[in-house]
Amino acid sequence: MIRVHLLGQIGLVASDGSELTAVLQQPKRFGLLAYLAASRPKRLHRRDSLLALFWPESDDARARAALRRALHFLRKWLGEEAVVARGDEVGTNPDRLWCDAGAAQDALAEGRDEEAVAHYCGGLLEGFFVASAPEFQRWVDEEGARLRRSVADAAGRLAEQAETRDRSTDAIAWLRRAMELAPDDEAACQRLVRLLDQTGDRAAAIQAYEAFARRMTDELGLTPSPETRALVQTIRDRRDIHPQREPRAPAGEDTVHTGSPDLIAVLPFVVRGDEEFAYLQEGLVDLLCAKLDGAGDLRTVDAHAMLTHVLPRESPIDGDMARQTAVHFGAGAYVVGSVVADRGRLQVRVTLCEMAGKKELQADAEGNAEQGIFAVVDTLVRKILSGRSTSIGGHLGRLAAVTTGSLPALKAYLRAERAFRAGEYARAVEALEEAVAEDDKFALAWYRLAAVRLARGALDDARAAAASAWQGRQRLAEHTRLLLDAQRAWLDGSVERAERLFTRVLEDRPEDVEAWYHLGYIRFASNFYRGRLVGEARGALERVVALDPKHVVALGALARIAAVERRADDVEGLVSQYLALSPAGDLELPLRALRAIATRDTKESADVVVQLASAAPPVVAAAAANMALAGDLAHAGAALERLTRSAATD
Question: 134: cis peptide before it, omega within 30°?
Answer without folding.
Answer: no
